[in-house]
Amino acid sequence: MSDEIQLQPTPAEIAKAAIVKRLEAQRDKLDAAIITGFNRKHPDSKERHWPEDFLHENGMYECICLHCRHHFLGYKRRMCCKVCASANEETKNE
Ligand SMILES: [Zn+2]
Fold it and tell me: What is the extent of the structural domain holding 22?
């Protein structure tokens, strides 16, 4: 019985979880707006982003690819867009 009571979240934990959920939803909306705006400004960059970087701190910087000079969104120290990175992977495997 006492184990069951310990597993119940406290009102403070429930309130905290609701706030975190609301903030994450706001962040997702902001991220989507940033990506939409960026793609409007750089229509040739849609496939060049690194979406796996976006949730990390400093993961949504506007970068310029060292190879093709196209703009893309990703971690601030990335030097290569996703298109050029995957092209390099393919030539490596040949
Ligand atoms: Zn590139």
Answer: 7-93
Residue 71 phi, psi dihedral angles, 5° rounding: -85, 145
64 CA from centroid of ligand 1 (Å): 8
The β-bridge partners of 64 are: 71
Does 2 map to a domain? no
How sure is the predictor about 4, in pLDDT bands with cuts at 50, 70 and 90? low
16: CA distance to ligand 1 center in Å?
42
Residue range 19-51, pLDDT digits in tens: 999 999 999 999 999 999 999 999 999 999 999
Ligand 1 centre and the CA of 88: distance in Å?
10
Whole-angstrom distance, CA of residue 88 vs CA of residue 6: 53
**Calpha distance 92→69 (Å, rounded):** 21
pTM for the whole structure = 0.76
